[in-house]
């Protein structure tokens, strides 16, 4: 993708305006078309929002994580599909920055920061539990020229438009991460249509058949520490999803506040009904709690604190459940209109449910978070 | 430095896992309590506590197996940064 002149990253006020004018009003249309138009992706580039956390020497603005979270919250308020694209692109960009050698960084980071190249994160496989995250169905075999990659990945957000694929594969010595250009011979991208939730995020299944890679395609350490590449990237993804989920709660509040102000039942404006007030109060409280948890996780990350990891799990656990609850309540408050494509809330519901499945499902998070509770009690 | 590093690393681990006992030389991975999440926390802890960025070639299991090996890693990284 070609970026126009870039003047970013935009401040939060500008991001908010962008979302209000150019994203939120069109999000249902994006969903129906099952794609985000190129013009919108170019605008994200113009605003410098693809990877603003990268340092300036690589075309970013060294944006701190708390601010990045607010940006992803705003975008998530408008359209979770676009936020999903930002999420995976951020995961790839941050990984190349954290683990890439000089050559890899120079080759990719500028283009990723400008959105000239889009990244996709390729971990999940069609025939295995995504929660297990072993990448056993994709193999990378070393030969004298480099690596040969074979296997299939599914549910790849942005896979239809990505230029750079960050692919997890099994080697003889465990799992490794590879940077693979999407136009390499042997890479076949098949769009996944009619996905219910983040429908415009241009998901794909990607097949690798005898894809030849140079030795320099390997990203980061091999063996045991290769797991930290995955954990690190998923941590950022989880943070972005959590912030996006707070955005969904906000969108639900906005939609309900407007709708209940103009709609009456039994001669009483919906806004004056106690059960509506109760649901609105729940949404407001969940939004504020979610944002505080996200801010805490972001601030810990900015400080390089190891507590970031658990704080991010907790933020995502809360925010994704809150988004599902808020979007479900929003559909209920809208009655039949809650199912209509003329209102945003059905889409919010579909999108919210995705946040409970990706980057650690609610059930997998419960294993991790509860284990922490038992550990704390043991102290 | 190395003794201070050992103490700090040990404190970090035992604060998280107070029930586990081990010597500085013992293989903590063999004790079974280190999952991938805690491994990442260990990497982050060392980088933050000792103000260093562990390079890829030093990020292998052999450097994290015991408190002593982690303290050696810290000593190498901090002396490389100074030298
Ligand atoms: C819209 C969308 C976008 C996605 N984008 C990407 C992407 O860009 N890149 C990518 O690699 N993947 C992507 N994924 C895949 C996603 O990461 C996986 O769906 C997720 O990891 C869960 O894996 P799974 O779907 O195989 O479910 P499974 O792992 O098969 O889980 C099925 C059910 O079992 C539960 N479960 C699993 N393990 C346990 C356990 N140990 N204890 C209790 N319950 C458990 C889960 O909570 C879930 O309810 C995307 C998925 C969706 C829906």
Structural class call of chain A reads: alpha+beta
What is the rounded Rg of chain A? 21 Å
How many E-type strands of chain A? 10
What is the straight-line distance between the termini of chain B?
15 Å
N-to-C SSE series of chain A?
A: HHHHHHEEEEEEEEHEEHHHH
Relative helix content of chain B = 40-55%
Q: What sort of overall outline of chain B do the alpha carbons produce when their principal axes are compared?
A: globular
* Tally of separate helices of chain A: 11
Largest interface: A-B, 23 and 23 residues
Alpha plus pi helix count of chain B: 3
Q: Work out the strand percent of chain A.
A: 15-25%
Helix content of chain A: 40-55%
The end-to-end distance of chain A, rounded to whole angstroms, is 52 Å
Shape by Cα distribution of chain A: globular
Helix/strand order of chain B: HHH
What value does the average pLDDT of chain A take?
95
Structure description:
Chain B: This is Carrier domain-containing protein. Chain B: It comes from Lentzea cavernae. The complex is a heterodimer of chains A (379) and B (83). Chain A contains eleven helices and ten strands. Chain A is α+β, with helices and mostly antiparallel strands and 379 residues long. In chain A, helix 4 (65-78) packs across helix 7 (226-262) and helix 9 runs antiparallel to helix 10 (345-355). The model of chain A is unreliable at 1-8 (pLDDT under 50). Chain B is mainly α and 83 residues long. Chain B has helices spanning 2-16, 36-49, 67-82. Chain B starts with a helix and ends with a helix. At the A-B interface, helix 7, helix 9 and helix 11 of A face helix 1 and helix 2 of B. Flavin-adenine dinucleotide binds at residues 88, 121-124, 129-131, 155-157, 195, 197-198, 203, 354, 357-358, 361, 363-364, 367 of chain A.
